[in-house]
Write the structure tokens for this entry.
Amino acid sequence: MSITEPTTRTPSGGVWAEVQSSAEFAGLRRRLRTFAFPMTAAFLLWYLLYVLLADYAHGFMATRLAGNITVGLVFGLLQFASTFVITGCYVWYANRRLDPVAERIRAEIEEGRR
Amino acid sequence: MSVLAQGTGGNPALNIGIFAAFVAITLVIVFRASRSTRSAADYYAAGRAFTGPQNGIAISGDYLSAASFLGIAGAIAVNGYDGFLYSIGFLVAWLVALLLVAELLRNTGKYTMADVLSFRMRQRPVRTAAAISTLAVSFFYLLAQMAGAGGLVALLLNVKDKTGQAVVIAVVGVVMIAYVLIGGMRGTTWVQIVKAVLLIAGAAVMTLWVLGKYGMNFSHLLDGAIRRSGSVGDKVLAPGLQYGKTETTKLDFVSLAIALVLGTAGLPHVLMRFYTVPSAREARRSVVWAIVVIGLFYLFTLVLGYGSAALVGPDTIKKAPGAANSAAPLLAQALGGTLLLGFVSAVAFATILAVVAGLTITASASFAHDVYANVIRGGAADDKAAEVRVARWTAVVIGILAIIGGIFANGQNIAFLVALAFAVAASANLPTILYSLFWKRFNTSGALWSIYGGLFSCVVLIVFSPVVSGKPIDRATGKSPSMLQGVDFHWFPLDNPGLVSIPLSFLLGFVGTVLARDRAAEEKYPEMEVRALTGAHAEKAVAH
């Protein structure tokens, strides 16, 4: 994997355009975007909710749940948890749904089958 | 306790000894790494031969700067929950890098951020703009680290006069230049890895130690923090102490939070690390490792921050030289005496050294690869030995500028300088990166509007913000917390410009694109998109 000769010849613009308009590539793009875009929107909104609560709802965030553990602390730790979970989901998704297709198209281009 | 109260920092000789050992060991590693540094790909991208986990740990090393380690622990110790807010923004930000940037950037670029931004644009103007914003972000970040070094010296080596501190800043600068010159990216990466492992290990031991003192019960630890916080009491458990004062400070916090979460994926020294691995898949693994390591570290700082409030006390911390920044070292001293303090001090120094080296190699790569090879020589020197020679000279110049800047910035607020670097990265870099990767219509004019607009609006808003002038005089110190004393020309109410400059930059990128009617960049979009998503003809690892 790490020992590869520099690529000899890169394809012309026509090849790239042809690949880009293929159904297989369109599928890859759709798979990436349908995961990455909504997920980005979701975690940014979730983060923004947290920021606004921390900023404007001090009383709520100071509510104690057990001992000295406050709502704010739990909310903060949930941001950590959601970050770890989203990371795990993306890796799972990319390994199964993105990499095989990307690999196939890459091989086709680099071996000059297009 | 009397020694703690004075904050004399234990045994300076021991602190210096442990730090010198770190420098000696890392220099040996850097020399070994230099043997296989021959080409530009070696110097800038470590031959693209690091594995994902190695690079992920190195990214953590780059990211967990002194501001993170000392700054966040100190902010939690002094301001309670509000200090924790920083770390959440710093962590969540990595999802932007993971989902939208890291892999696509690795597939389309070669050495620098500008490689991606200029891929389908007119080379000279876009590379120049990207290099300027790279240098600006790196320089602000560099200043923050060097200014931090001065404060740290006061605390840890008991060097209190400005001349002595200047000498130490110069020594840090010289060692850093040596790392970069000798080891290039490969050597610098190993320094980051060694430092990150030491930092995480040290923080983990201290975290368990603190929790152990409270029967592994975090709630009991918080009890201790509340008891030592005097009149503030249980307010340390919830947000509001630092940012909840007025409506302006609340809005300022929103602005900061946005800059933090969008800044990371635009930091040039973080982006450049994605080129040190052989493939996009390894770039993804790098980010995953970085998220896990950085996340764990921030959880540790939560315990360490409240731990230093409980075991050292906020009042003692505020009075120590270096103020809030001294919380973690003082906690180390309270736990393990001078030996643990020595270790933590050395790690803090190593942190500054490693981050500064990472920034320097990024800035020098941007100047040599983007400005010299592609703008001045029009691509003729691309990848040649001349380009690496220019990069090495640039590293020396940047190193010297960092030393001088660091001496002048000594005593400036570190967190502010870092927040500024994030704001510039989020405004000048991120919108352009996202547009050029995902928006077919985006063109040269849009890129220039967005980069220069983001950079310029950021800097102007900061110059006319309360950070530079016009904050009311603090009764305790008799000085205004603003950078300049005795003048007031501020009209922008917030400390952080992100709330205005980031949306503005997105808007300018859009308007600039639409107005220009330049469709040339669309012709290369198929190539860019196919490369980005599939990795076809991406730069391969160097064979040695």
Observations:
- Residues 2-31+40-534 of chain B form a domain with the Sodium/glucose cotransporter fold (CATH 1.20.1730.10).
